[in-house]
């Protein structure tokens, strides 16, 4: 039996606090908060959860937070809005450069992509 929450199969042989982090938008601290508010022990393995526990978690997540596709779409619309209004961060997104003040002379290869080598102009000798 696999536990499926919002279209994602969760690993059943992990502890609850770790298993919930397989959902996009839920980290360790948020999963701890979810389990505490629902009333499930965070060290209890997910295979030991009852059907009522799973339904409580599903209901809590669907009512109180954005995860997976809804969260991804929300982030994309925020980035598009920044690009449309033309603010500094939006222009950096558009150019594919780092956004938060990092140096770009030597680093930031993740954002800029592979190095593009440009040949030097030859000096004219007389």
From TrEMBL:
Signal sequence region: none
PANTHER family: 30S RIBOSOMAL PROTEIN S13/40S RIBOSOMAL PROTEIN S18, SMALL RIBOSOMAL SUBUNIT PROTEIN US13M
Keywords for the protein's UniProt record, in alphabetical order: Ribonucleoprotein, Ribosomal protein, RNA-binding, rRNA-binding
Residue segments, region Disordered: 96-126
Family the UniProt entry places it in: Belongs to the universal ribosomal protein uS13 family.
Pfam families tied to this protein: Ribosomal_S13
Keyword Ribosomal protein: yes
Name by which UniProt lists this protein: Small ribosomal subunit protein uS13
Record organism: Blattabacterium sp. (Ectobius sp.)
Record-linked InterPro entries: Rbsml_uS13_C (IPR027437), Ribosomal_uS13 (IPR001892), Ribosomal_uS13-like_H2TH (IPR010979), Ribosomal_uS13_bac-type (IPR019980), Ribosomal_uS13_CS (IPR018269)
Gene Ontology molecular function, alphabetical: rRNA binding; structural constituent of ribosome
Keyword Signal listed: no
GO annotation terms (biological process): translation
Organism lineage: Bacteria, Pseudomonadati, Bacteroidota, Flavobacteriia, Flavobacteriales
GO cellular component: cytosol; small ribosomal subunit
PROSITE patterns in alphabetical order: RIBOSOMAL_S13_1, RIBOSOMAL_S13_2
Domain of life: Bacteria
